[in-house]
Amino acid sequence: MKKLLLTGLACALLSGCAVYEQNKQEIEKPRFDSTVDRFTGAKKASWMKMYYGDHYQKNLPFDKLFAVSEVKKEKTNLNMISISREFTDWNYLKCHNTAWLVDGKPIKPITNKMNPKTLIHPVRVKEEIDVLFSNADMKKFSKAKKVEYKVCNDEFILTEEELSGLKQVINEIYK
Which N-terminal stretch is annotated as signal sequence (predicted)? Predict the structure, then answer.
């Protein structure tokens, strides 16, 4: 009887682990989207990658959103890299400037915009920073072998998958 109970418990645990892993893979699957406005002909492309984990987990990467939207009759498109992460407390609320290196060379953003949110169930904070770039600087990302960035004093590197997604978005608009 004990063996049967232990076997049943082990199966339930393994099934739960399999479901967790399946959910994680589905959430972390990158999503690419490209559209053309049928009235203006303006193109939009975006790539998003979310990371599965809780806000207590250390060293969880930022979620990423890369988006480029053509703005007809304007010199500069909307070129945005958005990074966000949930935490148990504010990390970048008072210091959310970013610095960027493309293959070791600095690129200065047009602007950084902080979008702080307080969430409940459980209580946590979401820090999102939208970073805008010029057309010329965005095109530099499309040729990059390595992209590094800094939020306040914390340094990060885009993964190969993230860099590939960024290039896909840029090439969709600027080809």
Answer: 1-20
